[in-house]
Amino acid sequence: MTQSTQSQQTPGADHDTDVVIVGGGMVGGVLARALALDGWRVEVVEQRAPQSSSSFDRRLTAVADAGWQYMDTLGLIDQPLAAAAQGIREVRVFDRGHFGLTRITARSAGVEALGYVMPNRELGERLETLLQHPPAGQAAVRYHRPARYLSHETDDAGVSVQIASDGQGGAQPTWLRARLMVAADGAESPVREQAGLSVHRREYDQVATVATAMPARPHRGVAFECFTTGGPLAVLPATGGRVSLVWVARGDEAERIARLDDTGVAQAVDTAFGHRLGGFSAISPRAQYPLSLVTASEAVADRLVVLGNAAHALHPVAGQGFNLCLRDIRDLTRVLRADRGARIDPGAPERLARYQSLRQADYRRTIGLTDGLVRGFSLDLPLLGHLRGATLSLFDGVAPLKNRLVRATRGIA
Ligand SMILES: Cc1cc2nc3c(=O)[nH]c(=O)nc-3n(C[C@H](O)[C@H](O)[C@H](O)COP(=O)(O)OP(=O)(O)OC[C@H]3O[C@@H](n4cnc5c(N)ncnc54)[C@H](O)[C@@H]3O)c2cc1C
Fold first, then answer.
1. Measured in angstroms, how far is the CA atom of residue 313 from the centroid of ligand 1?
2. What are the helix (H) ranges across 38-176?
């Protein structure tokens, strides 16, 4: 599928390719790998220098079983990444201070692990190697980095993308020519904005504080999601006996947390968590992320697919964001792969429309689940606490409800 662009070239266009991806973070990187494996010529424009994308910071990401298997089919799970990832054997969801607990085990779901908690930085390193130095017989991806997307123009045959290759916009702009452009440039997506797509934005007035810690008692592969009146607290199992903490609090409370020293954080988390793992020590430096829900009005436009945080930046409460992105990548590559063998145009409008319609139900369910959890568990009303506890017990006791929860946990749309 390496047909050449038959249209007139944009004056000054350096060269042409099949797909230009703007944004080389988690989503742009994984998509580049998936497309390159399918034989597409791919170029990635990333404004940051190697290994410094905000995607590949110190965070750990919980990837559901289905997403992990998909990443494996792309050849991403090599030995170092597998060794750095902790399997989730059980998920426990509870409402702090009220009865009610939902428990899902890998054994009852018939799998080895419900998912894996993976350090983002290791994924970045894996992508770095694989995209530029793939095994023999597989095509490499061309990087423009540091290079910043400036603008794009579309016509019937393709898209011309203007970039500044010093990352600052100061150098002479360069034009790239492709059949399809993908915006994987994050929640504030300059590409989405230039394409004129509107966004729906809901500010949660919540901030996630992220750190790792050593629990006093072994985590035994259990992932805890604890709903407190301030916001959800996730305690995820990590390798080396550590846990990853994702502690969501209202803005003013998060400011107070940011001022705490290590001992203060350890005590505050232990109290919020109800002393379940016997306390925490060795707290890492903290990072904070203001939270909002950002969804693009459309996932596609002329010669453009909007993907990852650019399409839907979600609250991290149920660890659904990157998992949803992996399903986007799987479906997009399937749609582009259809009719393989024919001289197909990856940016053809009917192909993009098919992708958009394929994704709608999953978007509705996943965004609805995440937003509903945030809002339902953030309200601090006395009766509501008992109702939430009862709901969690109900999930645990009613097989069809529980099965749906298990499927969502395992990343099966
Ligand atoms: C605290 C927290 C915890 C989370 N935990 C989980 C979890 O456990 N499980 C899960 O499934 N999801 C989780 N998520 C969601 C997950 O992190 C996102 O889905 C994922 O980061 C989306 O990646 P992305 O590549 O789309 O966007 P980004 O990570 O924002 O990357 C965008 C990239 O585009 C580049 N870029 C931007 N503008 C330009 C430009 N003009 N030119 C060139 N390049 C540009 C940036 O430099 C960056 O590299 C979590 C999110 C948060 C905030």
1. 8
2. 65-73, 79-84, 106-109, 120-132
Q: Is residue 181 within 8 Å of 304, Cβ to Cβ?
A: yes
Give tens-digit pLDDT for 4-35: 333 344 544 556 999 999 999 999 999 999 99
Atom 17 of ligand 1: nearest residue by CA position: 322
Q: Is ligand 1 within 6 A of the CB of residue 208? A: yes
Place of tokens 């479906």: 331
Same domain (yes/no): 44, 176: yes
Query: Distance between alpha carbon 373 and the CA centroid of its chain, in Å?
Result: 18
Residue 226, domain extent: 85-115+209-291+379-409
* Domain CATH number, residue 396: 3.30.9.10
Ligand 1, residue 23: give the atom nearest the CA: 34
What percent of the chain clears pLDDT 70, i.e. is strictly above it? Answer: 84
Angstrom distance (rounded) from CA 66 to CA 87: 13
Ligand 1 and 303: CB distance under 6 A: no
β-pair partners for 363: none
Cα gap 403→406, rounded to integer Å: 5
User: Residue 22 Cα, ligand 1 centroid: separation in angstroms?
Assistant: 13
Does residue 242 sit within a domain?
Answer: yes
The answer to whether residues 252 and 152 belong to one domain is no
